[in-house]
Amino acid sequence: MSIDLDHIRQVFDEADCLFTREQVDSAIEHMAADISETLAEKNPLVFAVMNGGLVFAGKLLTHLHFPLESSYMHATRYRNTTRGGELDWKVPPAQDLKDRHVLIVDDILDEGHTLSAIVEHCKAAGAAEVLTAVLVDKKHDRKAHPGQKCDFTGLICEDRYIFGSGMDYQGYWRNAPGIYALKGH
Ligand SMILES: O=P(O)(O)OC[C@H]1O[C@H](OP(=O)(O)OP(=O)(O)O)[C@H](O)[C@@H]1O
Ligand SMILES: Nc1nc2[nH]cnc2c(=O)[nH]1
């Protein structure tokens, strides 16, 4: 399928900036301080959830000044579309999670199905503790579990389709430095 790059550029030009790069970076620094308080002595295993968690995890890791191991897992529900479906495990965690303190780092808590499934997977694999960190929590009443929250949350956004800071629009604009909302969504 050929992609219309003029459309991709137009989407960025017409989007609303919800958070600037500076606001995103400041939220990540605050989260890093909270995460450090909780996990500095726990020798944690920190997982980025691909693809969306890549940018946030990369920035966050450089603010964590204590011994940790970092890795990735790849689970997806949206496959470059704007609506969620079944969870599809591309790459489950490769490490032995038994008795480990695990931190899952992802870009967004939307309906929460993705993180719920990942947390259950890690618990079933024997982790001592599974904590979650997301850059953005989307505000609406469609969470998989009513009142569902992550252990560490950077920003709260309105109920619109967003991209930037790791989040995509049709596979593009994960590289945009702030957080943007699609026009009309
Ligand atoms: O809370 P939920 O409604 O389950 O949605 C959140 C998930 O959706 C996105 O992943 P996606 O499946 O789009 O894959 P990607 O990370 O490769 O963009 C995002 O990165 C989260 O992992
Ligand atoms: N890019 C992107 N991915 C998502 N996954 C779940 N919600 C969203 C969203 O608003 N934007």
From TrEMBL:
Pfam families: Pribosyltran. It catalyses: GMP + diphosphate = guanine + 5-phospho-alpha-D-ribose 1-diphosphate; IMP + diphosphate = hypoxanthine + 5-phospho-alpha-D-ribose 1-diphosphate. InterPro entries: HGPRT, PRTase-like, PRTase_dom. Keywords: Glycosyltransferase, Transferase. Signal peptide: none annotated. Its EC number is 2.4.2.8. GO terms for cellular component: cytosol. One of its GO terms (biological process) is guanine salvage. The keyword Transferase applies. Residues 23-158 form the Phosphoribosyltransferase domain. GO terms for molecular function: guanine phosphoribosyltransferase activity; hypoxanthine phosphoribosyltransferase activity; magnesium ion binding. This is Hypoxanthine-guanine phosphoribosyltransferase.
